[in-house]
Amino acid sequence: MRYQSTRGGAGDRSFAEVLLEGLAPDGGLYVPLEVPRLSESTLRSFAGRSYAEVATEVMFPYVTPDYELDEFADLVGRSYQRFDHPDVAPLRVLNQATGEWLLELFWGPTLAFKDVALQLLGDLFERELAKRSQTVTIVGATSGDTGSAAIEAMRGRDGIELFMLHPRGRVSAVQRLQMTTVDAPNIHNLAIEGTFDDCQDLVKAMFADTGFRARHALSAVNSINWARVMAQTVYYVTAAVHLSAPASSVAFSVPTGNFGNIYAGHVARRMGVPISQLILATNVNDILSRAFDTGSLQIHEVIHSTSPAMDIQVSSNFERLLFELFERDGRVLAALMERFRFLGHVELPEPVLEAFRELFDADSLDDDGTRTVIRQVYEQAGLVVDPHTAVGVGVGRELRQHGEVPLVMLACAHPAKFPETVEAALGERPITPSRISALAGLPERVEALPNDLEAVQALITERAADNG
Ligand SMILES: *Cc1c(COP(=O)(O)O)cnc(C)c1O
Fold first, then answer.
1. Are 292 and 358 spatial neighbours (Cβ–Cβ below 8 Å)?
2. What pLDDT was estimated at residue 361?
3. N or C: which end of the chain has fewer CB within 10 A?
4. DSSP readout, 268-304?
5. Is 131 a catalytic residue?
6. Whether the Cβ atoms of residue 6 and residue 319 lie closer than 8 Å to each other
7. How many whole angstroms separate alpha carbon 361 and alpha carbon 293?
8. Count of C-beta atoms within a 10 Å radius of residue 150
9. Average pLDDT, 10 consecutive residues per value, the chain (468 residues)
10. Cβ atoms 24, 334 nearer than 8 A
11. In CATH, which of 3.40.640.10, 3.20.20.140, 3.40.50.1100, 3.40.50.1820 is domain 91-111+226-426?
12. 229, 263, 412: which to mutate for ligand 1, most atoms within 8 A of CB?
């Protein structure tokens, strides 16, 4: 398998190169040159097999020839052993009569779906760096969920130093504790006096500083990394097979921020999973559902909502879909993305918009609607869902087309990660799982820093020297 950039300026990479590089040097995202097909008989053969076995088979074509099958199977098996549920991504009935299901993606160490990809990424990184006798410095910015998932995935790993920037006082208590109580010498939490956007700008500035970037071998694990998309295709396969694919098809509703999770569903469909509908659900940060309605991709101010992991205006992974809809013409897409960055808005050409509308359905749900759905689901099924999941459930129910096709709603986080919103909807807090209650009272490791590039770079240089 070979990979190319969506902007046409970087071609022909292997999986391992794409894994370590993250973003392509021309500013584009890596995509495989072709999408491998899962035949009907392959899909049938998945029935009754373990998540790790199916995951190995689904992902293997993407990682050849860098991996042997046995070695890859071993690594995948190890990653998914760290999940608290034997099925890794279990399906739960929401409503038997209407065929509604929740796909629970929060059984990993940090209780959000990002673990599904990042746990595997940790193992892939460590193995690749050992093979090359290399080290990397991973820097990232987080508004909450990504930071803890990346920290859990990279803690204690050889060859990796991880610096995670979060806006001081602006992440929830649970999110902070999940990051700062991790006791591993290669994990560094930086609490920045500023907003999430300030943190992200600091990270971007460090990547743009070519001397600094090379000196520290900077790397990224945010959702632009192809390996994350690849890992997320797997649960679309296991869920569909569980609901009798390939004999029948399935609809999915996906709460969306960076377009990573739902793009993985699109890839799964292109691989041959019979998906009748992919429903894109946004909160009030609705750039994608507005683009779907109007054909105009237009950045607005980020609004803080009760589903903060989706408070995003520029959905990076959307570029991967656009690349396909522009018939893989990287030069045309590069020009469009530059115009978008410069002007803050761009019109999608009519054929591209039509193709987008053929592949997806889309709508948004505001905070009031989100609380209403949390309440409805509790009253109807006795289940507590988190606010991100509720956005997907609300929009999924609204846009579902075929009553006879099962509708799977992706449950992206454990409700205990967002207790305030659940309490506002239900009048009481969700039960706290031991993964969270065990953090109370543990010592926290975090460095407060001003929103200042030089100060952040100085700290990274100092720590790298200590540990090197
Ligand atoms: C990251 C996240 C999302 C958004 O996923 P994307 O891949 O960015 O679309 C939704 N819900 C939760 C709980 C998340 O952590």
1. no
2. 98
3. C
4. HHHHT--EEEEEEEE-S--HHHHHHHHSEEE------
5. no
6. yes
7. 10
8. 26
9. 93 92 87 97 98 98 97 97 97 97 97 96 96 94 88 96 94 92 97 89 88 91 89 98 97 95 98 98 96 96 90 89 97 95 95 98 98 98 97 98 96 95 95 93 97 97 80
10. no
11. 3.40.50.1100
12. 412
User: What is the distance, to the nearest Å, from the Cα of residue 424 to the centroid of all Cα atoms in its chain?
Assistant: 27
Distance, CA of 7 to CA of 326 (rounded, Å): 11
Strand order in the sheet with 218-219: 218-219, 136-141, 160-167, 187-193, 447-450
CA distance 118 to 220: 12
Q: So what's the pLDDT on residue 63?
A: 98
The helix (run of H) or strand (run of E) holding residue 210 is: helix 210-215
Q: Considering only the C-alpha atoms of the chain, give the largest distance between any 2 of them, rounded to a whole number of Å.
A: 61
User: What CA–CA distances, in Å, run from 311 to 40, 273, 297, 390?
Assistant: 38, 30, 16, 15
Ligand 1 centre to CA of 468 (Å) is: 34
* Residue keyed to tokens 């080290």: 135
Determine contact, residues 403/141, Cβ cutoff 8 Å.
Answer: no
Question: Which tokens in the block code for residue 49?
Answer: 């097999």
Angle formed at CA 178 by CA 432 and CA 428, multiple of 5 degrees: 25
CB-ligand 1 contact for 256 (6 Å cutoff): yes
Ordered DSSP codes for 18-54: HHHH-B-TTS-BEEESSPPP--HHHHHHTTT--HHHH
Tokens of 218: 């900077």
Instruction: Give one word for 51, left, alpha or beta, with left for phi > 0 and alpha for psi -120 to 50.
Output: alpha
Q: Which atom of ligand 1 is nearest to the CA of 114?
A: 15
Distance CA 107, CA 22 (A): 26
CA distance 161 to 304: 31
Rounded Cα distance between 429 and 421, Å, is 9
Query: Cα(332) to centroid of ligand 1, in Å?
Result: 29
Q: Is the CB of 15 under 6 A from ligand 1?
A: no
pTM over 0.90: yes
Question: Alpha-carbon distance 129 to 20, whole Å?
Answer: 9
Residue 244 DSSP label: T
Q: How far is the CA of 144 from the centre of ligand 1 (A)?
A: 11
| Structure token digits, residue 256 | 């969306």
Ligand 1 contact via 224 beta carbon (within 6 Å): no
Tokens, residue 341? 């960055």
